[in-house]
Amino acid sequence: MSMIKVRFVKLRAGARVPFYATPGSAAADLFACLDDVSELDGLPVLGGSVTIPAGGRVSVPTGIAIEPVVSQPHSECHGNHEKPDEAELPHQSHQVPIAQTDNFVALIFGRSGHGAKFGVTLANSVGVVDSDYRGEIKVALINHGSQPFTVSHGDRIAQIAFVPVATAMFVEAAALGETERGTGGFGSTGR
After folding, report:
1. What is the pLDDT of residue 75?
2. Which of 16, 18, 81, 186 stands the most exposed, by the fewest C-beta atoms within 10 Å?
């Protein structure tokens, strides 16, 4: 498996580092960070927990911001994360910054158990974190289930995967090439 380095900043003390549950995991778990949060999208946060009513939705903070940086071979990384070296700490502003990796996107996916067992999924289906976004990562959850669903500080709420992307140059044309499928859309290839 290839690996990129992702620098992160904890925006609140209780934030947890994204974590790969197994060596074969394609995505790392993201955790709810409800430190010093009293309300989310109109819902009260009590005792470090927020309850999403049936049909309700809420954006849950993770307490981290990320920055994908230069690619490196898998053998150079040890474990899920490294301790920051002095060159990467914010107070070392005289250091030359590490090159940003702009050909990756972070995709946020729901947890399969939440959807299958409780009907809780991502409100936006898949979250997209562009390589130049530096704000806090939040996870928009929606409760499609019939029962309230409680999220507590430190709970695994979603997964994040880093995927290479290519940008496109859009070129207007008078017509498009013929294909067997043609203009067949939804359901046109069968059930």
Report:
1. 43
2. 186
